[in-house]
Write a structure and sequence with these properties.
By secondary structure, the chain is of the alpha/beta class. It has twelve helices and eight strands. α2 links the parallel β2 and β3 (59-63). The structure holds phosphoenolpyruvate (PEP).
């Protein structure tokens, strides 16, 4: 039985004071919701703040990216060990905003996934097709390529140490997400691809859904058999939205 997991992706939003207020609200709002897992992925400068606020609670924390290199002359980059130093349990890898605007390639994403696993940080591997690819009927091919780039590099057992997140790019930040059945069909396809290599890993690995997840659509999405939680952007910035999504996850 896979436990539901809800992860907030704060992107490049927030400041010290607003983070403090948001985390206070999450700590009290999620305290009694013990049937699911929760985490927030915060901008790197606020990892210390997240660790101080959330340590010992039922809310995990993580980064939104990291270098594929473990150290060296890489100005402006953050090494995996630095995330580990601040107690990160999770790191988002290959978010479409990085694949798109920042030109992250499948091999870079695979290298980051591999080093996160080595460091004992759970990578949340984002997969998803653009609107053009979606309209051209290429969604399955795109996510298959993205998944295989990592699975072939790290091996299926290591893949199973991470988490998958299917986020159709056309559904991110627009307020209107994929229909639950539409999302389920890609989630099931991803699980089938993993099962070709290992039935056990396929049974265990959590596949989150992302793209305009909010309180009004979370219940129907999370009811799908292959949707094991959510990667939540906009709605994670307001406890009045994020807590109800977590409550829905807790109710399954
Ligand atoms: C995301 O940033 O991963 C995301 C899914 O954003 P939103 O929930 O705002 O669509």
């Amino acid at each position: 039985m896979r436990r539901k997991l809800i992860v907030g992706n704060w992107k490049m939003y927030g400041d010290y004071a607003s983070n403090e207020a948001l985390m206070d609200a999450l700590l009290s709002g999620l305290r009694d919701l013990r049937n699911a897992d929760y985490a927030v992925c915060v901008p790197h400068p606020y990892l210390f703040q997240a660790q101080a606020a959330l340590k010992g609670s039922n809310i995990g924390w993580g980064g939104q990216n990291m270098s594929q290199f473990t150290g060296g002359a890489f100005t402006g980059s953050v090494a995996p060990q630095m995330l580990a130093d601040f107690g990160c349990q999770y790191v988002i890898i290959g978010h479409s905003e990085r694949r798109g605007a920042l030109h992250e390639t499948n091999p870079m994403v695979a290298a980051k996934f591999a080093v996160a696993v080595r460091m004992g940080i759970k990578p949340i591997l984002c997969l998803g097709e653009t609107l053009e690819e979606h309209d051209a009927g290429q969604a399955h091919d795109v996510v298959e390529r993205q998944l295989n780039a990592v699975m072939n590099e790290v091996g299926v057992e290591n893949l199973g140490k991470g988490i998958l997140a299917y986020e159709p790019v056309w559904a991110i930040g627009v307020g209107r997400g994929a229909r639950p059945e539409q999302a389920q069909s890609i989630h099931a396809y991803l699980r089938k691809l993993v099962a070709k290599k290992s039935k056990d890993v396929a049974k265990e690995i959590r596949i989150l859904h992302g793209g305009s997840v909010k309180p009004s659509n979370a219940a129907k999405l999370l009811a799908m058999p292959d949707i094991d939680g959510g990667l939540v952007g906009g709605a994670s910035l307001d406890a009045a939205d994020f807590v109800p999504i977590c409550r829905i996850a807790h109710s399954f």
